[in-house]
Specification:
This protein folds into 7 domains: about 170 residues, 2-Layer Sandwich (Beta-Lactamase); about 110 residues; about 110 residues, PAS domain (Beta-Lactamase), CATH 3.30.450.20; about 110 residues, Beta-Lactamase; about 100 residues, 2-Layer Sandwich (Beta-Lactamase), CATH 3.30.450; about 150 residues, Histidine kinase-like ATPase, C-terminal domain (Heat Shock Protein 90), CATH 3.30.565.10; about 120 residues, Rossmann fold (3-Layer(aba) Sandwich). Helix content is about 45%, strand content about 20%. The chain contains 25 helices and 32 strands. The termini are far apart.
């Protein structure tokens, strides 16, 4: 009964509202748990993604906050690693994905079906289908409300700045929220079932059942069947129906009143919402104004940033450029910051693969402090110094999220700073290097603030006064001898000089000049003075000496034996001595200030010896012709060089002249005489050859005739006849050797002897000569032996010529040794790269005074001091020239009465050595490269003098010679080479680019040298070289 009364009192609408409230309560509890699950999804392994989402989406409108976005990306990366089944998207107000755990989706349009509800400011969750995989996913979307106006949209206000979208696979979500629905599902179902039963019973009892009864009563009344009516104070069926109907009417009226109350409340809520909307509109208008103001402020700020002289950029911790102003173009190439270019890959000075050395941005990220560095950058024009400053941008947790980089061109400032530092260093060094005392003195207390070594001699006590330091006294200077300059400078504020007279240790007087200059402060008051002292005692003594020296110098200049004059840079004569007056015939007053070509026979404007840059300096002994004032042409030898100023700069030229006209005439005469002598020498050589030939012919007949008689072919001879015939045969052989020696020496002197250089064994040659002389040595009962070094390699030499040398040495040894031994040795000397061959005997020896004469022509060996033997005295002279022609040396040593030893050394050459003489550097290098490729050793020379010295010292196997050299002609050099014993037999290959010169060489029989015409091919040169070396 109580339950029915309660139901009767509530009414159907109230019961329905109670059901709705209960359902809402259960849904709210469920929603709260879903929200909790969403928090779990978002916050696990992340500090606060919702907060970061707001920062990120706000930073999109503020380029200078671009570093925040990278921090969010880092957080999202960490979240993804912890929640691989979940995906997070940060979506801007245009529906574009700006940051996500799924990087491949960046820049795409979001595609969730709940996105429209999120943009209306509603937090939304639900199940939808992934369009790519077709899998059901759980999506949670939370709007990020806008707090400011958006600059990027020209001041428009968006209620929603962006959307945070969390997407998860359905299975993990169901597993995650299983507890939420598991706890409330039974309660929710039971509650709904109970409300439904409760409402159904009420509806049946109070509405359906009375209507049924009313219908039954009406049917009975229509039939007239009132037998069932009860009169005894009780209602009948109609009364009951009326009562029920009235109750229903009352219930309906009550329900209508409740509906009216609800309607009134809804209207009141609508009015409140309208008032709230009006307030929100006002607030949005104010916010829009604030955003406009903020936008204008940001525009002004960016305008200022873009118009300052320094470049400004914002970099994230991945060293990506997030924003930069216009002046930053001096540091970076044009870049699109939306693509996040890496800074060091877009440097204007050149891309790099890694961070710059001493990068201040890296340092700022590392320690969170401001850093700067001056970085020199090499550009196309010059080296530019940039000052790069980096300041960190930190979040609320004091974590560096970005760095502001400022770049400024400080080339000029750095140059000035370096210049100031160099000047300061130079000034300090100069001051300390001064030989005279220098110091800075404070005018208040006379204390020395700075002094050089000359002032304090290596020891400067603190707070020492100038008078104590200089004069070793306790009071300031005063009086005539020591007038103090300090008060005078302080009063006059002008430099001042005074003289002090000091007494040195020896008691002599020294004259000292003291100079003082003021140092002023900002108010123009003298605060310090600079003081330095000069000992002028010597200067005063030297002044007169200098004057006298100058006079003497001018006198020497005027009377010096060589003509001397100087010119300025315009080739105008500035000085002119007496000798040049005599040479040219021009007086000093006639030439001063005039062009130096005044006396030149040919114009020399383009080939001024003193000033032409293409003529090497100094010019020495250059010959040229001049024309005297009287018209005579004179030959002069000229020396010339630049005339330099005190700083080493060229201020003109200086030349000396020597009249060599007479000397040149004498040289021509000598040259003619030399030619005549050469012709006479040729006649003598020809005569010698002819006489030798004419003598050989009858000697051959005599020798053969004697041999026939000795053999008994002409009949038997007795002992006396045989003795006389053998004596004649020996003298014939001796006469033949003398003739051969004369002929060989004649050939050597005339440089006509040819050498056939072949690779052979020196030991084999020694053994052959040894066998030839062994019978003679045995006949004299001499111990005759050889000691050979078996490690000696084959070398290149003329075997016949070396045999001749050995024959001469062994013949002399046998001739002058009556008893004892003769030993022939060979020895390899690796460190000197040579072979030594010696012939040692135990004969009478050689007097010391005779040793230097041994290798001179027509000198004979003596026995002691008196010994004289037959012969021409040419054998050792011939041997010396043969050994030197091989690039070797020959020598002799002796101990009178005991022994004599003759030795010669031959060089070991593993490679042919070629000397190239040419003044064209490129040709030298080309020849060197090509010849070295063929295995030759190469020497290079650019002048004739250098080439001659190299040939004399190195004995090359071949010389390649250019006929046009800067110091000598090729003809002269060939002549010098032919006149030197050590170089006379070196073959020469002439190189020339002038066909007439080649023709001249071909006509000149005296040269007898092969030639090659420039330009030549490498194959042609190598063919000539190989042929010459083989021959």
């Amino acid at each position: 009964m109580k339950k029915s009364k309660i139901i009767n009192r509530l009414g159907p609408r109230s019961i329905f509202l109670l059901a709705l409230i209960l359902a809402a309560f259960l849904a709210g509890v469920t929603a709260l748990d879903i929200r909790a699950h969403k928090e779990t999804l978002l916050k696990k392994n992340s500090d606060n993604i919702e907060s970061l989402a707001r920062v990120f989406l706000t930073a999109m409108r503020h380029p200078m906050m671009a570093g925040e976005q990278d921090a969010i990306q880092q957080q999202l990366t960490e979240y993804k690693s912890a929640q691989p089944d979940n995906a997070v998207y940060l979506i801007d107000y245009e529906g574009v994905i700006r940051r996500s755990t799924e990087k491949e989706r960046l820049g795409e349009k979001a595609r969730s079906k709940f996105l429209a509800q999120a943009y209306r400011g509603r937090e939304t969750a639900g199940i939808e289908k992934n369009p790519e995989t077709g899998e059901a996913v759980f999506s949670y979307l939370e709007p990020i409300l806008n707090e400011e106006s958006c600059n990027a949209c020209h001041g428009k206000t968006h209620p929603v700045l962006g959307v945070l979208h969390v997407e998860s696979r359905l299975a993990p979500v169901l597993a995650g929220i299983k507890d939420v629905y598991g706890q409330h599902a039974i309660i929710m179902v039971m509650g709904l079932a109970g409300v439904s039963v409760f409402a159904g019973g009420y509806f049946f009892k109070n509405i359906i059942r009375p209507i049924q009864r009313l219908e039954e009563g009406m049917q009975k009344a229509a039939k007239g069947d009132f037998s069932q009516r009860i009169i005894s104070g009780k209602k009948d069926e109609i009364g009951n129906a009326i009562t029920i109907f009235n109750q229903m009417s009352l219930d309906l009226a009550k329900s209508g009143a409740k509906e009216n109350e609800l309607l009134r409340r809804e209207q009141q809520r609508a009015r409140e919402l309208a008032e709230l909307n009006e307030k929100l509109t006002v607030e949005m208008t104010e916010r829009e104004k604030a955003e406009n103001t903020q936008r204008e402020t940001e525009a002004k700020f960016m305008n200022v940033i873009n118009n300052i002289g320094s470049g400004v950029a914002l970099l994230n911790n991945d060293m990506e450029l997030m924003a930069l102003n216009a002046p930053m173009g001096m540091w970076y190439c044009p870049v699109d910051v939306s693509k996040k270019p890496v800074c060091f890959k877009n440097l204007k000075a050149g891309q790099q693969e890694g961070f710059c050395v001493n990068c201040p941005v890296i340092e700022a990220f590392r320690d969170g402090q401001a850093h700067e560095a001056v970085i020199p950058v090499v550009t196309e024009k010059a080296v530019v110094d940039f000052r790069v400053a980096a300041s960190p941008v930190k979040d609320k947790t004091n974590k560096v999220i970005a760095v502001v980089e400022m770049v400024e061109d400080v080339t000029e400032r750095c140059r000035l700073e370096r210049q100031i530092q160099e000047q300061n260093s130079f000034l300090n060094n100069v001051i300390d290097a001064l030989a005279y005392p220098f110091c800075v003195i404070d005018v208040k207390d006379y204390k020395v603030k700075m002094a050089n070594t000359a002032a304090h001699n290596g020891y400067l006590p603190e707070d020492i006064t100038c008078y104590a330091l200089t004069h070793n006294q306790a009071q300031p200077c005063s009086g005539v001898k020591h007038e103090c300059p300090l008060p005078i400078v302080q009063q006059e504020k002008m430099p001042f000089m005074t003289q002090h007279i000091h007494v040195d240790k020896q008691g002599g007087l020294r004259h000292i000049e003291v100079y003082a200059s003021p140092i002023l402060d900002a108010q123009g008051r003298v605060k310090q003075i600079i003081e330095y002292s000069l000992d002028v005692t010597g200067r005063k003594k030297f002044e007169q000496q200098i004057i006298r020296a100058k006079e003497e110098g001018e006198m020497i200049y005027r009377v010096m034996p060589s003509g001397l004059f100087t010119v300025d840079l315009d080739q105008k004569i500035t000085t002119w001595n007496n000798k040049v007056e005599q040479i040219t015939g021009y007086k000093r007053e006639e030439v001063l200030g005039k062009h130096c070509s005044l006396f030149a026979l040919e114009p020399c404007d383009k080939k001024c010896w003193a000033l032409a840059p293409d003529i090497g300096k100094p010019v020495t002994e250059a010959e040229c012709k001049i024309m005297r004032k009287d018209g005579q042409v004179r030959i002069v030898s000229k020396n010339a060089d630049y005339l330099r100023g005190l700083e080493g700069n060229i201020i003109g030229g200086i030349e000396t002249l020597e009249d060599i006209t007479e000397r040149k005439r004498n040289e021509e005469a000598l040259k003619e005489q030399a030619q005549r002598l050469e012709q006479m020498y040729k006649i003598k050589s020809d005569f010698t050859s002819m006489v030798s030939h004419e003598l050989r012919t009858p000697l051959t007949s005599i020798k053969e005739g004697i041999a026939i008689v000795l053999d008994g072919s002409a009949g038997e001879i007795n002992a006396d006849q045989r003795e006389f015939l053998e004596m004649g045969k020996r003298n014939v052989d001796r006469l033949k050797r003398l003739i051969d020696e004369v002929l060989d020496f004649s050939k050597l002197e005339s440089k006509k002897m040819r050498f056939k250089m072949t690779s052979a064994s020196i030991n084999a040659v020694i053994e052959e000569v040894f066998r030839m002389h062994q019978p003679v040595a045995t006949e004299k009962s001499l111990e005759f032996k050889i000691e050979l070094d078996g490690s000696i390699p084959d070398i290149k030499f003329d075997t016949d010529k070396i045999c001749l040398v050995l024959n001469n040495l062994i013949n002399n040894a046998i001739k002058f040794t009556d008893k004892g031994s003769i030993i022939i040795k060979s020895l390899l000397v690796p460190d000197k790269n040579s072979i030594i061959v010696s012939v040692k005997d135990t004969g009478a020896g050689i007097a010391p005074e005779d040793l230097p004469k041994l290798f001179e022509k027509f000198q004979q060996l003596g026995e002691g001091n008196q010994r004289v033997t037959g012969g021409t005295g040419l054998g050792l002279a011939i041997s010396k020239q043969i050994i030197e022609s091989h690039g070797g040396v020959i020598s002799a040593a002796s101990k009178p009465g005991e022994w004599s030893e003759f030795s010669f050394a031959l060089p070991i050459k593993t490679k042919n050595n070629i000397l190239v003489i040419d003044d064209e550097r490129m040709l030298l290098e080309l020849c060197e490269m090509n010849l070295k490729e063929q295995g030759y050793d190469v020497l290079l020379a650019e002048t004739g003098k250098e080439g001659f010295e190299l040939a004399k010292n190195n004995k090359p196997d071949l010389i390649l010679l250019d006929m046009k050299l800067p110091d000598v002609s090729g003809y002269e050099l060939i002549g010098r080479l032919r006149s030197e014993n050590s170089t006379a037999y070196i073959p020469v290959l002439v190189m020339s680019g002038f066909e007439d010169e080649i023709a001249k060489i071909g006509r000149d029989n005296r040269l007898a040298v092969p030639w090659i015409l420039k330009p030549f091919k490498n194959e042609e040169l190598l063919l000539q070289v190989n042929n010459l070396l083989k021959s």
